[in-house]
Every structure is written in structure tokens, then in C-alpha cells.
Design brief:
There is one protein chain. With 205 residues, this protein is an all-beta fold. The protein is built from no helices and 23 strands. The chain has a five-stranded mixed sheet with strand order 3-1-8-5-6, with no helix packed on it.
Length: 205
């Protein structure tokens, strides 16, 4: 204490609190400020990525849909939740088999598996998704309706003729598909007649 009257002057200043945004998947989140004082109005800017939708956010673990808040007298942690969009999967196919997707909807960016069931004598030819051919029977879901077309084709089998001695045998085509009629041309040598014709060991004549 000095040897005279003392005037004490005291000043105060606002406490500065931090604003932290957690990492998110499916969009971007920002505020104009990373620090603020009690009572300030803070606006949150949210932008969803393609195929995602903003759902809600947490401000210090309190859920809300509002994109602004009054700064409390403490630090703030913001967590924003985005969810992937769901779109329809429409499957059609050509003759020669069936194709299906077990669910009506699929999540954006998820892997969609198409069930393929060729009929007897057919096999998968190709698959298109929204007009573009894909490899295999699965694809990554786009952010809109996926129109899937599955094309089947007949399997082509080789036809090999083996004849014994004492005559000749042939076919007009050395390849055929399931269900095709194959004509075997048989010419016995002089003094012989046709005995049997077998296909894969099973007699047909």
C-alpha cells in the first residue's frame, strides 16, 4: 500500500472458446469462426456430397437439425451426420434365363450383386447398368436408379463324328446349340448297312 489513497482499477475480457468440427463422411462442414465468445451467433454451413443427404448434427452431444446456435460459455464440438441415399434397382433380362436383385433398393456406393440363372443350354452374355457394360455380375450403386439388363446367349457345343470302318459319316455343321437338330450323313460301304448311331454313348438309332 502506498502512502496515499489507492484507486484500484479492474478490467475484464470475454473468455474465448474453441469450435471444433469432427471428421465426417458424406459431406463437408464449416463455420466462419474457429473460436467465439459467449453469446455469439454461430452459423454452420453443411454441403452433402453426391449420393449423400444431411440428416442432423450434434452440438456437444445434443442432437439438432438447426444450422446455427448461440455460443455457450464452454468449448463446442460439432458432429454432423450424413447418410447415403437409396435408389431403386430395376432388373430385366433377355430370353434364356432369369436375373434378379433380392432387394428393391440399394445404398449409394454399395456393391450390388445380381443373381443370374441361365436356362438349360444358355449362358450369361453380358450385363449393362444404365446402358454401360460391366465386368462380372456386380457393380457399384450410382446415386440414381440403376437399370440393369442381363443378356443370355445359347451355348455352342462342338460336334465330332467318329465312324468305324466300312463306311463314312459326317455332319453339315461341326458346332450346334442346345435344342438344334443335327443331321448325321451316313454312307455305308458296299455290302454294309447302318448298324447304330450313338451320341455320347447313348444309342439314338
Amino acid at each position: 500500500m502506498p502512502d496515499e489513497d489507492a484507486e484500484v482499477t479492474v478490467t475484464f475480457k470475454k473468455t474465448v472458446y474453441t469450435i471444433t468440427i469432427t471428421d465426417v463422411v458424406g459431406g463437408t462442414v464449416s463455420t466462419k469462426k474457429t473460436t467465439a465468445t459467449y453469446g455469439e451467433n454461430i452459423v454452420i454451413t453443411v454441403n452433402a456430397d453426391e449420393g449423400y443427404t444431411f440428416r442432423y448434427l450434434f452440438i456437444n452431444d445434443r442432437a439438432t437439425m438447426k444450422l446455427s446456435f448461440q455460443m455457450p460459455a464452454k468449448d463446442v464440438i460439432i458432429m454432423v451426420v450424413f447418410s447415403a441415399d437409396f435408389s431403386t434397382v430395376e432388373v430385366t433380362s433377355s430370353e434364356g434365363g432369369t436375373a434378379s436383385y433380392p432387394d428393391f433398393l440399394a445404398e449409394y456406393n454399395s456393391t450390388v450383386y445380381i443373381n443370374i440363372e441361365p436356362d438349360e443350354g444358355y449362358e450369361l452374355d453380358y450385363i449393362t447398368v444404365n446402358g454401360e457394360r460391366i465386368d462380372g455380375t456386380s457393380f457399384t450403386m450410382p446415386d440414381n436408379t440403376a437399370q440393369v439388363y442381363v443378356a443370355f446367349k445359347k451355348i455352342t457345343y462342338a460336334v465330332e463324328v467318329v465312324s468305324g470302318p466300312n463306311g463314312t459319316a459326317s455332319v453339315a455343321e461341326d458346332h450346334a446349340c442346345w435344342g438344334d437338330e443335327v443331321t448325321v450323313l451316313v454312307t455305308p460301304d458296299e455290302g454294309y448297312i447302318l448298324d447304330t448311331v450313338k451320341v455320347n454313348g447313348e444309342a439314338i438309332l
